[in-house]
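> example.struct
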């Protein structure tokens, strides 16, 4: 052994190396690969580390479960390319645009609906930002509120299925992806309600911040509602199929992608260029996710060999923390790590550490998955690395990044209330999965 240190100390050294590499700007996949190689070499030998890395990556890429990632990603990209997101926003605007803060609320409602098809947050930001920002600017909205409402509303995408974050969590922990999908529905809807309520209250207290839109006629409302049928059909195919048990998540992904393509072609709303672009982007996004997970799995194997998770669990048990104290400590950690890492890398890096601890403490694995996914998603609107904020700021070029972050802070209230409710009432997450 090159170092006369306890096994746990060597493992801790390797994990510190991983964080240092990430903070230095090394891609998270490369950082985890280096950590796994160095860590297993220190714990066993170099040959074992190379063998472990090779077998782990082959196991990951040969797992057919991963087909769900490109399928759901492609489905969402087709929906966006075909303009169905714009129809969804217009329908929401016709119904609630005349209320206080109605345009911002409409973008939130549209994001919630779009989330049932698109499994990532950036698609929601770009879609709603392109459609809703010009409208809110036209009516004289405070641009801090306008940009922040879209950045935060897009985070609903990780709660309402199909969610890439739930897929990654399920793959890491071997928890049922179907149950995770169902567990996110009620929290996602509840979060949308909280955001709309917060926007409305702020608009009532300060009407100049979010002026009312024009009142639509009933015929306009009904006509706009009729144009969202593609979203409803796809929701029925995906969520209905999974909930009823008629299809697996993989089959639901294939059904959803085929349905989105068929509807887009039949309605003649998808050009060849847009179709090719959606395929190309789906492949790029899926490849990036799978590469990260390949090396995250190797990293997890190193964590298991080092025995750090068991030592961490023993340490926490020795502290005799209550359940609420433990979850509060974990949530605080996720707030801190979310400030410096994007959602999916944060998941693959931390879940192997905290999942065994949570199970030892008696937490439900599905409930814990929902809580963790919400917390890592908080990071996408938290400085200094808030990818949703950077994305919306790129669309609203005249709004300084500092102003967007200032606009986001009041929406932390909604995140805080949601987490408190889920911790206090776990059935918010577990009710629908219990019916499966």
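> example.seq
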């Amino acid at each position: 052994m090159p170092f006369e240190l306890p096994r746990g100390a060597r493992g801790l050294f390797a994990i510190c190396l991983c964080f240092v590499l990430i903070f230095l700007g090394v891609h998270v996949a490369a950082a985890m690969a280096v950590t796994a190689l160095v860590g297993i070499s220190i714990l066993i030998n170099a040959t074992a580390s190379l063998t472990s890395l090779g077998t782990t990556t082959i196991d990951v890429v040969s797992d057919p479960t991963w087909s769900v990632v490109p399928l759901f990603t492609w489905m969402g990209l087709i929906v966006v390319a075909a303009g169905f997101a714009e129809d969804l926003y217009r329908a929401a605007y016709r119904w609630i645009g005349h209320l206080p803060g109605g345009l911002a609320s409409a973008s939130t409602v549209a994001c919630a609906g779009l989330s049932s098809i698109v499994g990532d947050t950036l698609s929601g930001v770009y879609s709603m930002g392109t459609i809703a920002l010009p409208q809110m600017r036209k009516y004289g909205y405070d641009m801090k509120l306008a940009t922040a409402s879209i950045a935060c509303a897009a985070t609903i995408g990780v709660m309402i299925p199909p969610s890439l974050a739930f897929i990654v969590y399920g793959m890491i922990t071997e928890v049922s992806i179907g149950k995770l999908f169902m567990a996110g529905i009620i929290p996602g809807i509840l979060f949308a309600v909280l955001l709309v309520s917060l926007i409305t209250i702020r608009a009532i207290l300060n009407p100049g911040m979010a002026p009312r839109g024009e009142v639509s006629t009933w015929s306009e409302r009904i006509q706009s509602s009729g144009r969202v049928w593609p979203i409803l059909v796809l929701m029925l195919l995906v969520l209905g199929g999974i909930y009823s048990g008629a299809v697996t998540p993989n089959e639901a992904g294939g059904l959803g992608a085929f349905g989105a393509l068929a509807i887009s072609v039949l309605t003649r709303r998808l050009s060849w260029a847009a179709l090719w672009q959606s395929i190309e982007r789906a492949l790029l996004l899926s490849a990036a996710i799978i590469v990260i997970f390949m090396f995250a799995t190797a990293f997890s194997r190193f964590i298991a060999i080092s025995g750090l998770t068991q030592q961490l669990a023993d340490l926490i048990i020795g502290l005799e923390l209550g359940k609420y104290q433990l979850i509060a400590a974990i949530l605080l950690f996720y707030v801190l790590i979310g400030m410096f890492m994007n959602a999916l890398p944060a998941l693959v890096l931390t879940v192997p550490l905290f999942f065994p601890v949570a199970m030892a403490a008696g937490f439900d694995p599905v409930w814990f998955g929902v809580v963790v996914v919400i917390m890592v998603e908080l990071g996408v609107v938290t400085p200094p690395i808030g990818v949703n904020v950077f994305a919306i700021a790129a669309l609203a070029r005249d709004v300084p990044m500092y102003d967007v972050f200032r606009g986001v802070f009041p929406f932390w209230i909604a995140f805080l209330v949601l987490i408190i409710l889920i911790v206090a009432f776990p059935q918010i997450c577990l009710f629908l999965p219990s019916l499966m």
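> remarks
The chain has 22 helices and no strands.
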